[in-house]
Amino acid sequence: MIEATMSRAAAADRITEDLLRPLASPSWRFYLLVLFLGSIVAVGASAFIWQVYYGLGESGLRMPVFWGFYITNFVFWIGISHAGTLISAILRLVNAGWRRPVTRCAEVITAFALMIGAMFPIIHLGRPWLFFWLMPYPNQRMLWPNFRSPLVWDFFAISAYLTGSLLFLFLPMIPDFALVRDRSTGFRKKVYGLLSLGWRGTTKQWHRLETGMSIMAIAIIPVAVSVHTIVSFDFSMAPIPGWHTTIFGPYFVAGAIFSGIAGLIIAMAALRKFLHLEAYLHPLHFQNLGKLLLMMSLLWGYFVFAERLTTWYGNGTAEMNVFYVTQDGSYAPLYWTMVTCNFLLPVSILSIRRLRTIAGCVIASFGVVVGMWLERFLIIVPTLGHKFLPYTWGTYRPQPVEIAIMTATFAAMTLLYVLFSKFVPIISIWELKAGEPNPGAAAPGLEHR
Amino acid sequence: MAARWGMAVDLDTCTGCGACVTACHAENNIPTVGPEQAAVGRAMHWIRIESYWDGEFPEARMKFRPVMCQHCDAAPCEPVCPTYASHHTEEGLNAQVYNRCIGTRYCANACPYNVRFFEFYNPEWPKPLQVQLNPDVSVREVGVMEKCTFCVQRITAAQIDAKAEKKPLKDGDIKPACVQSCTAKALVFGDLNDPESEVSRLSRSPRGSKLLDDLGTLPKVTYLAKQSLA
């Protein structure tokens, strides 16, 4: 019995050592990476300033395609954000033991992807300096935003989701912050001391933390579902062909979770490789997430099939114009790339057990990320270019500012993730310890379902 | 009873001359964007003449359709605007408050007729053209949406004049720039709430139809079908 306890203590020490190692003084490679990513972000920021100075004409937007890359990226990043909190909340609620090393790196994706996604509705404004007019705030003119506008719903949905996700991310970090606090000195100790909110590890504190986390895990799920439904309303509320359809709510939520899982798999594979977390992120985690991705891929295929078939069978003139231009018109190369990346590729890789390795999952995930980005583009642009009156049909070509800003958001996501994993243990230490099999328990390994 | 402004367009008499487009530009300080921007698709014409070929050569003939904001009673552009920049006035106009617009361009996406335009750059008028700007119409800055107003400045001016002279407004007193400049008299503007007005009479015509009527946007512009083979 004593031996067992000792081996358990040793295992806990090993976990602490391994997971706090990335927080030690960074190497030159870290600085180089930060510099590289930071300069891409700086280019994107300058592109935005350029666009504000000269006008939105610097983008490729034109009559009648008034939304393009920016709104595509908006939906894309909000979609990516659905990985984290939602998956982590569901895995917590069903008490899946394998979730423990996964939850935090998932929740961080949510926080950062949401912050990035929420910038796009501001970046794309004609007069971005007046963005606060979208918010309800007390003002002398007694003017409120228009609560009938889906864009105002967006504002509420995203701010609620961001607040909830940050809380959900922060709560389980408190004991880990306290751990870092206790092991550091000077300024670091002060900062982590503040972040740990006076955590002492008393029974009462543990109890409150558990209660808080259960409440958040339940509360965040309907919020997450509502967010992407409301994002889909941005399109489905407008009575134009290709947008005005009731399937968009669930279609967008499914697509969001789909792309989110893909983002999570890529992030986890990168963490595993670069932070040497092979002992914690096992092939099992990738296999399980790979199965989840496979299921979402099939669900996505089903949604696309249902949406396309209904359009084709209904044979409405205006809808069919959009249908054909994507199916075999000028957008067909993008459309079929999307189908390949989102359906054919992941299904053929992930449904074969032998291929459901880490590498296989990562390849499928990259496909899904590309495919889901294209899906959003193909929802937005062909419809706007092919509304009812053929006289006003048009097209769209993205311009350098848009490409620079889009590239910058991918760099920003990576940068934030890199920085985060440098300052916070990217795997929840205390949760991992709690999940360690207790050698004294009757049925060891039961938690590793 | 408040007026309900509407228009009738006789496709039989429209010659597609484009005088209305020019008049609209002059009246409403609409910037001309230059050949490069126009080629990209950023030309702004609050009223446009759509031209369609009918039949095959040599029996082909051309048909024209002037399209401006239809001032829908159930306008898709209005509810989607987050700042009320696009809203409905008591006289049934789809007003656009430039100062309230932050440029989400949602209204333009929701509009089935594509009659809303965006200021992609700050407008410029090569000297001395800036002195011909209409002082009754605000010049819009970069980043806002704009569109046909039925020349609301003329409507308001006529109403103020009528009030000052204590006379009721007569049908035909108000002429938007396009109506005034139409040599073929294909465009008729007036109060749809006055059953005797010419626009009301034409709107009731069996030749009349609304553009994309089945969408349920309840446009206030009536198109009178082409009959002659000229």
Tags for this model:
heterodimer, A: 449 residues, mainly alpha, 16 helices, disordered C terminus, B: 230 residues, Alpha-Beta Plaits, 7 helices, 10 strands, 21% helix
Tell me what the structure shows:
The complex is a heterodimer of chains A (449) and B (230). With 449 residues, chain A is mainly α. Chain A is built from 16 helices and no strands. Chain A has helices at residues 2-20, 28-54, 69-80, 84-93, 103-123, 150-170, 174-182, 186-195, 203-236, 248-274, 283-314, 317-327, 332-350, 358-385, 400-423, 429-435. The longest helix of chain A is centred in the middle third of the chain and has 34 residues, at 203-236. Chain A is globular. The two termini of chain A are 25 Å apart. Mean pLDDT of chain A is 88; it is low at 439-449. With 230 residues, chain B is α+β, with helices and mostly antiparallel strands. Chain B has a single domain (5-224), classed as Alpha-Beta Plaits (2-Layer Sandwich), CATH 3.30.70.20. Chain B has helices at residues 19-27, 35-40, 77-80, 106-110, 152-164, 177-181, 198-203; strands spanning 5-10, 48-54, 61-67, 86-88, 94-96, 116-118, 145-147, 187-191, 208-209, 221-224. Chain B has a 4-stranded mixed sheet. In chain B, a hairpin with a 5-residue loop joins β4 and β5. The longest helix of chain B is centred in the last third of the chain and has 13 residues, at 152-164. Chain B is globular and about 45 Å long. The model of chain B has no long low-confidence stretch (mean pLDDT 93). At the A-B interface, α6 of A face β2 and α4 of B.
Strand order of the largest sheet of chain B: 8-1-10-9
Task: Indicate the low-confidence ranges of chain B by residue numbers.
Answer: none
| Number of E-state strands of chain A | 0
Using a beta-carbon cutoff below 8 angstroms, give the protein chain pair with the largest interface and the number of residues from each chain.
A-B, 42 and 44 residues
Number of domains as seen in the coordinates of chain B: 1
Mind telling me the C-alpha Rg of chain B?
18 Å
Q: Note the main sheet of chain B.
A: 4 strands, mixed
Q: How far do the termini of chain B sit from each other?
A: 41 Å
How many individual helices of chain A? 16
Low-confidence stretches of chain A: 439-449
Might you state the CATH topology name of chain B? Answer: Alpha-Beta Plaits
Question: What fraction, in percent, of the residue positions of chain A are helical?
Answer: 55-70%
Tell me which oligomeric state these chains represent: heterodimer
- β-strand amount of chain B: 15-25%
Alpha carbon gyration radius of chain A: 23 Å
Task: Count helical runs of chain B.
Answer: 7
What is the second-level CATH architecture of chain B? 2-Layer Sandwich
Q: What is the terminal separation of chain A in angstroms?
A: 25 Å
Question: Helix coverage percent of residues of chain B?
Answer: 10-25%
Q: What sequence of helices (H) and strands (E) makes up the elements of chain A?
A: HHHHHHHHHHHHHHHH
Biggest sheet overview of chain A: none
